[in-house]
């Protein structure tokens, strides 16, 4: 299972089945148990190897990565054959214009259409586009022709193909849905090895619309510790000369540790554990320097009596857009750091 395969897969929130099937096929031989719950979460258990020393019960560690991606949904089929749509997840209207998309299970190709600049009054050209006037054009001549291809309620994904870019220093790749197929790919890699904890790998559903899958999965698993794997904001490109603010994250500087976002405050013991583990193993790391967004940790830390939780992310440029860019070095270092952290948890959570 590669990041490329997962990035190219299609799975908007609530429609993660194709992604889930790919992941299960990749990990089936590496796990002891698995289940798919009512919301579509795939929960895999890999038991501790070797088991706890002296008969001690191994720690139950939930590591979550969400399968769903942002996208669109068809809300109407118009008389001229165009499709009305709405957004699924947080998308800035400004990134939608003229983007290529795939509609429904048949992956019908289309483009998001909007009035050309020639027909937009000068007074409106410097304003954000009114996306209520945008449609998806699938080339259908009329409503009947469109109805033969798509249905109201069909999911729509962006049409972007994974590609590794030439860069000896950063080893970058571009593709769609790195939030959070990057986290899913990290978790698949972790299931290939052995760990001294009971690893509950939760590939969650519907994160982009409210952390819904993680809430259900965490209640079911009842973990001792939880780690959310994510793709997060990277805004390290040159800024205005008078803007001396630090970037949220930087490409190539290692996985980003989140100490707080809008959904949770990280358990300080786990923050310290990741820092110590990274430094002890010469793994580069950085901090997410913005209190923004939310992750599955926001749901997991509230499960039952509460769960010590943290989020670790692969920095990705142009997040929540049709295409993103990340460093494969950051990806590899994320795998290394979580693997080492799971080993460090063998004796339990530090006090």
Brief digest:
The chain has 351 residues and is α+β, with helices and mostly antiparallel strands. The chain has eight helices and 17 strands.
Detailed description of the structure:
With 351 residues, this protein is of the alpha+beta class. 23% of the residues lie in helices and 25% in strands. The strands form two sheets. Strands 1, 2, 3, 10, 11, 12, 13, 14, 15, 16 and 17 form an eleven-stranded mixed sheet that branches. It has a six-stranded antiparallel sheet with strand order 5-4-9-6-7-8. Helix 4 (178-190) packs across helix 8 (328-344) and helix 6 (268-280) crosses helix 8.
Output the helix-strand order: HHEEEEEEEEHEEEHEHEEHEHEEH
Distance between the termini: 37 Å
CATH superfamily of the largest domain: Zn peptidases
Mean pLDDT: 93
CATH topology of the largest domain: Aminopeptidase
| Percentage of residues in helical conformation | 10-25%
| Helical run tally | 8
Q: Uncertain regions: pLDDT < 50 for 5+ in a row?
A: none
* Name of the CATH architecture of the largest domain: 3-Layer(aba) Sandwich
Main β sheet profile? 11 strands, mixed
The counted number of beta strands is: 17
